[in-house]
Structures are given as structure tokens and as C-alpha cells.
Amino acid sequence: MPDLIEDILGLAPDSPLGRLRRQRPEALRHAEGAYRELLLPADPGGLSLAERAALARHVAEREGEAALAAHFAGLAPSPTPSPRLDALLAYAEKTAMAPESTSKADIDGLVALGLTSRDIVAATQLIAFVPYQVRLLAGLRALMQEKAA
Amino acid sequence: MSRFTLKPVGWRPRLAPVKAETATPEQLAALEACPPAQRRSTYFLTLAHDPGSLGERGALFNIVMYAEGGLDRADRELSTAVVSMVNGCVFCTSVHAKRFVELTGEEPAMQRLLDEGWAAEPDPRRKAMADFTEALTCDPGAVTAQHLAPLRAAGLDDLEILDLIHSVAMFANANRLMLTLGDPLLPRGV
User: Fold this and answer.
1) Calpha distance B66→B152 (Å, rounded)
2) Is A63 near chain B, with CB under 8 Å?
3) If you ran DSSP here, which 8-state letter would residue B36 be given?
4) Cα gap A116→B79, rounded to integer Å
5) Which of A143, B3, B88, B147 is in Cβ range 3.0-4.6 Å of A100 for a Cys bridge?
6) Does A141 lie at the interface with B, CB-CB under 8 angstroms?
7) 2.40.50.100, 3.60.15.10, 1.10.150.20, 1.20.1290.10: CATH of A4-148
8) CA distance B56 to chain A (A)
């Protein structure tokens, strides 16, 4: 079964850390599942696959996770610049980097651009999921470093 | 006193939530994957607008917080309360601080943490977990094996550390959802 986190880390499933992760098989399965539902959904609704990849890439870059950002960049062509894309990226920036600074006006702004409730929740889930991946990668790298010492 | 509290904090969504009575089969199935106590909460009904992500993310949350063995449940609650304080999520802090108290009976210890933070936390194991939690929350790219040394000194094994990493990561996610999709409703006097 593919695992984005292990692809990025170059971690073998049968390595000591790979085996440790498999003591929590559902955590692997559902982290991969959430990634696929958010970045590669069969029915993306009103939030295109290109927009999804661009939002995830922005958050990964801002969190300093270059390998993850490069992965997202390879998922879809960059979306055409537009006021809508600018608003989505601004929302990603606030949600990822300063979530306490968001307000109802940010959500209302997305509604005014024609995004549905589903699109807004999907965008928010996506933007908020990349910080999960970033911290999981960082924690696992520390464990890899410890094992290699 | 800080703004963090053990008192119940409400949450008002910024988008109208899905109504349980009119939810689609797909939305209901996704809600079933979430922790039983929260399936009909305003928060999960708001997330149900996008059932695909709710189902996977709810199942992930469930296993991170409730998987058997590994890190003690109370330690997961401690860690998620600390993440929520760092991120400024008063709602999540109150929920998980309260669960810590329910599991341990140690209300004074949690109240001190809420009021004063963990710089002077007297319990070395909790201090090590809180410091690691803060580091991984604030600057994940700077975390190295050196940050694990205090956890090892406090006796945490590999699975406990993995569970701690999962808890910290989960609340990087949970706090962002809660802070962006709604507003906390604070009790009087906080």
C-alpha cells in the first residue's frame, strides 16, 4: 500500500521505524486516506485538483517542508492566476500560519466568490491537514536521526 | 490568570452546519467514523459538508486519541491541551484539559498548567512531554533527535513517542479547523 509519508522520508516499511509505525496501522491508513480525499478526490466538487495542489504546496512551503511542497507541485499543473486563487491562497496563509487571526469575514469572503459550504470545508480541511503531515514528518525524522546515531 | 479555562467553552460555526435530519447517506456514514460522543456536535456537523475528508480525518483522530496501548490517554490529553494553548485555541484547550482532569483527577495540576504554562512544571515526565509538544508545534523543522533526549530520560519508549508525535500533529490540524470554521463562546468571567 502506498504511503506518502514514507515515500518522502525514504523509509522502508520493514525498517525499525517502519515496523514501529505499523503498530498503528489505522493511523497510516487514514493519514494516507485523508491525503487522497483532500488532494486526489474522485469528485473534487467546486475546488479543482489544481487549486487543491496549489493550496497544499503553499502551506508546505510556508512550513519549510520542501520535499512535501515538491510532491504537491507535481500533482497538478499550476492553476491560472485569478482573484479567486489569490483569495484562496490568502485564506491558506492565514489558516496555516496564524489561524487565530481568522474571522467570519474570511469565510464570508469565500462565499462571496461563489464557493459552496462543501468547497470551503474541503479547502479548510486541506489547509489544516498539511500541518499534520509536516509535524509527523518532523517527528519521524527526529526518530530516524536518533536510530542512526 | 490566563484566558485558558477548565470551564465549558462553546463554539459557534461561521458556516451553517449540516442538519442531521437532512444529511445525505454519505454525510451520515462519515459522521459514524467520528468519536461517538461528538458525532452530532455542531463542529462535526459543520465538517460533514465535505464527507470524504470528514470520514478519513475523523477515523484518524479516533485512532490518534484512543488507540490502545502506547502513550497513556491522559498524556495524550495533556499534549493536545498544550498544543491548543500554543495555538491559542481556547475551545480545544478547555475540552482536552477537562478530559485530562477526568482521567487523572488532578485538577490543581491542570489548572496550574493553564494559568502558568509548563516552564516550571514540577512533574519531569509531563515537563518533557510539554516541552517537546511546544517545539514540534512551533518550529517542526528545527526538531532533532536532541529534542527526544528528555523524553527518553523520562522513560518514554518508541511507541509512546510515536503516539505523542501523532497527538501533536493531530492538533496542528484540529486547532486550525476549530479556529477558522467557528468562534469560541467563552463562559462569563474568562
Assistant:
1) 23
2) yes
3) G
4) 34
5) B88
6) yes
7) 1.20.1290.10
8) 5
Q: Flag whether B188 is in a domain.
A: no
In this predicted structure, what is the pLDDT of residue B190? 53
* Crossing angle between the packed helical segments A104-112 and A83-97, to the nearest 10 degrees: 160
pLDDT-derived band of residue B160, with 50, 70 and 90 as boundaries? Answer: very high
**Residue B48 β-bridge partners:** none
Q: Which of these, A76, A24, A2, A97, lies nearest to B67 by C-alpha position?
A: A24
Q: CA-based diameter of chain A, in Å?
A: 54
CA distance A142 to B143: 7
Q: Of A59, A50, A31, A41, whose CA–CA distance to A118 is shortest?
A: A41
Domain count, chain B: 1
Beta bridge partners of B13: B182
Query: Cα distance from B111 to chain A (closest Cα, Å)?
Result: 23
The pLDDT tens digits of the residues spanning B65-84 come to 999 999 999 999 999 999 99
Q: Is A96 helix (H, G, I), strand (E, B) or coil?
A: helix
